[in-house]
Amino acid sequence: MTTLRDAGKTGHARYTYRLRPSSTARAALLAEWDRCRWVWNQCVATSRAAHTARQECGPVRLDKMLTGWRGDHDWLRAGASVPQQQTIRDFAKSRAKALKDITARLPMRQRAGMPRFKNKDRAAPTLNYTRRGFRLAGGRLHLAGGIILTVVWSRDLPADLSSVRVYRDSPGHWYVSFVVPARSEPLPETGRAIGVDWGVKEVATTTSDAHDLPHPRCGRTAAARLARYQKMMARRKPSKGKPASKGYRKAARLAARLHKKVARQRQDTARKWAKKVVRDFDVLAVEDFKPKFLATSTMARKAADAAIGATKTALIEMARKHRRDLHLVHPAHTTMDCARCGARAEHALPLSERTYTCTACGASSPRDKNSARVMLVRAGLDPAGVDRGRPDVPPGRQAA
Ligand SMILES: [Zn+2]
């Protein structure tokens, strides 16, 4: 079990806004991206050659090489140096991570993998600027190299900006994402605790009936439409080495747009719910759910996993921001234990069985409500008094 009470003290938050770049600005961003992509690919080639020759290829060497490349090529020097230096730094970071995973002898599929060449058609444009590479003036974002961008200020931006990322998403929209120090905003104490269980039927079942979160109905229709686009893409998939057909690109664009829309709705619902939970409770005992992305998962299961993932993240972030005490509880056996007496059922309940009945103490309650109460017990809290205020809970043996 992990406690996240003080984890947010040194954290960072991202504030993201939509950009409305003029055609001039868009062309300038893409030209910067072409140069940064070239720098990245040079880094890949250099580090591969260094690896073969058993030479060191750290950020210092690459930084020096950038100076050389800029001296040799006028077109590279025509671009701002800040995003190119950031490219080197990002490359060094991802290379170091890959090397660390190799040293740690992680299984192949868990390793980060060495940085690879970025393909012009497949890699999404991303430019990073440190504090000296951008400024805000007259409500617009000025990037090094004289690129001026119109920002849609959908919410207030805090001061103390440390860096900025400008990127284009798969449906083709441009965004800017500012990094700011995470602020903590303590809320008044409530003296109450809540247990949260994630599931396929409801996104969250909690020890408080007023805080349960059902799966959104729109999620199912969106999942069906997404499945249709994916089938269209599979049918129109270009053969290896051939350019994608118009029909394939259209289906891919529709799928990307829908994906984005669903993710946004999901995040919006998750944040609103998390805000409510964090406002009403000081202590949160939350199932540490980890989705298993199985190839055999149904569309409904995948959609449910994605909704749970987004909601769990939102709850953790919200608890951190408002300095609430959040315990992550290991999910093993949470559906088999009795929240009232702690006895463990001999067999896991089939998913179709919606009621948990304890063979030891005879307590009977909806399956997910029992699991939510088990979260509280596991976090060392007393589910009685939290839920319906049952004072008659025997001091039975508690699950570890
Ligand atoms: Zn029991």
Automatic annotation (TrEMBL):
Q: Output the Gene Ontology terms for molecular function.
A: endonuclease activity
Q: Which UniProt keywords apply?
A: DNA recombination, DNA-binding, Endonuclease, Hydrolase, Metal-binding, Nuclease, Transposition, Zinc
- Pfam families of this UniProt entry? Cas12f1-like_TNB, HTH_OrfB_IS605, OrfB_IS605
* Matches recorded under InterPro entries: Cas12f1-like_TNB, Transposase, Transposase_put_HTH
Give TM regions: none
* Domain Probable transposase IS891/IS1136/IS1341 residues, every copy: 184-289
Coiled coil (UniProt feature): none
| Keyword Glycoprotein set for record | no
| Keyword Signal appears in the UniProt entry | no
Domain annotation Transposase putative helix-turn-helix: ranges? 14-55
Please report the stretch or stretches of sequence annotated as the Cas12f1-like TNB domain. 312-374
User: Which family is annotated?
Assistant: In the C-terminal section; belongs to the transposase 35 family.
By what name is this protein known?
A: RNA-guided endonuclease InsQ/TnpB family protein
Biological classification of the source: Bacteria, Bacillati, Actinomycetota, Actinomycetes, Streptosporangiales
